Every structure is written in structure tokens, then in C-alpha cells.
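Whiteboard transcription, Tuesday session. T.W. wrote the C-alpha cells on the left side:
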């Protein structure tokens, strides 16, 4: 059965890994691409990065954070349930080649997005240094998986409960200060994190790629909801991205647009919780 849920497993209190049957997507997807899925016919369309795939089994894996109504509903799904639709692979694949030494920076659920990119960069022959971080140890994900594909893995937590007490940008700054020659940086995570990473690399002219996840509706470039400003020009994350030159991204505008529907999302989430409590 197409779009059947094979697994739906918690990686932490708020992050879940879902494996979906989607053979056509599993067979053609590349690092950096994403899918748009719907739980039911009237459901929200949400973009989620493809973390991994198994072409032989016809399955793909996604990782999502439970933050609103739709992701809360996703977290309730069980093996054997079926999604209404899974559209993909979408977006431009990551530019993968042997750059030399690359640093992959992942924050929060962005670690899941960083994983397939890091894996592809390692397979292309790069020396890979991975930096991952979370607010606290109990929500850190994919540590062992990234350790297996990285030449070096460095970890930070905001509260100091694990690894470096501070931010991923601190570790990156320390690497640069120590004289590590870095040919390219990939940064994926919360907008403030990506912005700071770009400010760390900018003075050193280290090419820095960020993966953006703005509000998205049709994911075909028609609706314009996912527009972002890059180098003073309007781009659409669904067809021109999701990856862009981080030194050119208008992060202030991106943050503002991401907050557009916060009140509505809170109302929808609360309504879903109330409905769940009545069951």
C-alpha cells in the first residue's frame, strides 16, 4: 500500500522518525531534497526533508519535531496507517563534490536534515567535521549515526548538560581560530543559529550553505508562500532551494515571515490537544 507508515519512532521527547513506503521517491531522491505530505484530504501540507531512503525496500525516512497540530497528529500514527499523499522528491539537491574539508553544522531537528548531506559529502571524499547541538542532552538526536560518517564529531548543548556548554557557533569559531582549514560550511537548524554561523564564517570568506524551511503551500513555485530574499532578490525555497548562500540570505525577513501564523497555529494545536483529551 503506497504511503503506508512502516515505523514511527520517538528519537527524543519532541522529535520523531517516520519511515514511509514511497518507492518512486526512494528510488530517485538525493541529499537535500524534501517531500510534502498530507495526513488526510483536508489536512495541512507540510514540507519535511528526506533523511534517508532504501530503494530496495521502497521506503524513505523523515524526521520531524512535534510543534503544532499536524506534527502532533503525525506522532499519533502507527505502523500500518496510511498518509493521504506524499509528494516528492522536491527541491534542488545539495551540490555534492570533493571540496576538501567541510563542516556540517546541525542544530535541533536540523540535525536530521544535516545527516543525509553529511553522508553524501563523506561519500564524495571530503574530510567531514560535524558539529551538532541542542538545548539539552535529552533532545539531541543522531549522535551515533553522525559519528559513523564523520571524521570528527563535536557536540554542544545550551545548558551544558552534554559536550560544550554553549552553541554550535562557538565550536565553529574555535575551529577557525585554531587554524583548521575549512573549505565549506553547511548550516541547518533554527534561523538564529544559521544567521550566527554565517556571521562567524563571513569574515573568513568561507562559503556557507544554509537550508531554509519557510512557510510552504504548493511546493511548486506557484503560490509564492515560501519566498525568501537572497542577495536582494526574491527566491522560492521550494524550487530555487531549499539551500542558499547563507551570506546572501535576509534572515530578518525570513524570521518575520515564519512568525506570520503563530497565533493560528497555537489555536489549532490547543484544539487538537483538547480533542485528544476527550477520547
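and on the right, the sequence the group agreed on:
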Amino acid at each position: 500500500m503506497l504511503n503506508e507508515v512502516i515505523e514511527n519512532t520517538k528519537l527524543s521527547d519532541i522529535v520523531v522518525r517516520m519511515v514511509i513506503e514511497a518507492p518512486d521517491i526512494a528510488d530517485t531522491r538525493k541529499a537535500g531534497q524534501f517531500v510534502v505530505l498530507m495526513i488526510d484530504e483536508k489536512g495541512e501540507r507540510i514540507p519535511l526533508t528526506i533523511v534517508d531512503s532504501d530503494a530496495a525496500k521502497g521506503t524513505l525516512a523523515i524526521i520531524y519535531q512535534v510543534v503544532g497540530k499536524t506534527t502532533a497528529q503525525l506522532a499519533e500514527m502507527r505502523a500500518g496507517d496510511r498518509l493521504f499523499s506524499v509528494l516528492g522528491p522536491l527541491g534542488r539537491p545539495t551540490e555534492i563534490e570533493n571540496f576538501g574539508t567541510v563542516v556540517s553544522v546541525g542544530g535541533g531537528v536540523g540535525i536530521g536534515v544535516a545527516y543525509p548531506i553529511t553522508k553524501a559529502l563523506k561519500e564524495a571524499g571530503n574530510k567531514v567535521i560535524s558539529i551538532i547541538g541542542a538545548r539539552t542532552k535529552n533532545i539531541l538526536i543522531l549522535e551515533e549515526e553522525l559519528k559513523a560518517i564523520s571524521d570528527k564529531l563535536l557536540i554542544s548543548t545550551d545548558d551544558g548538560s552534554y559536550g560544550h556548554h554553549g552553541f554550535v557557533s562557538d565550536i565553529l569559531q574555535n575551529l577557525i581560530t585554531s587554524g583548521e582549514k575549512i573549505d565549506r560550511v553547511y548550516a541547518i537548524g533554527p534561523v538564529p543559529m544559521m544567521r550566527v554561523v554565517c556571521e562567524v564564517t563571513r569574515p573568513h570568506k568561507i562559503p556557507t550553505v544554509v537550508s531554509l524551511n519557510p512557510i510552504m503551500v504548493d511546493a511548486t513555485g506557484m503560490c509564492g508562500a515560501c519566498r525568501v530574499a537572497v542577495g536582494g532578490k526574491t527566491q522560492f525555497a521550494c524550487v530555487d532551494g531549499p539551500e542558499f548562500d547563507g551570506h546572501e540570505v535576509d534572515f530578518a525577513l525570513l524570521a518575520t515571515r515564519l512568525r506570520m501564523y503563530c497565533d493560528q497555529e497555537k489555536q489549532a494545536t490547543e484544539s487538537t490537544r483538547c480533542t485528544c483529551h476527550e477520547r
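Someone added at the bottom: Confidence is low (pLDDT under 50) at residues 274-279.
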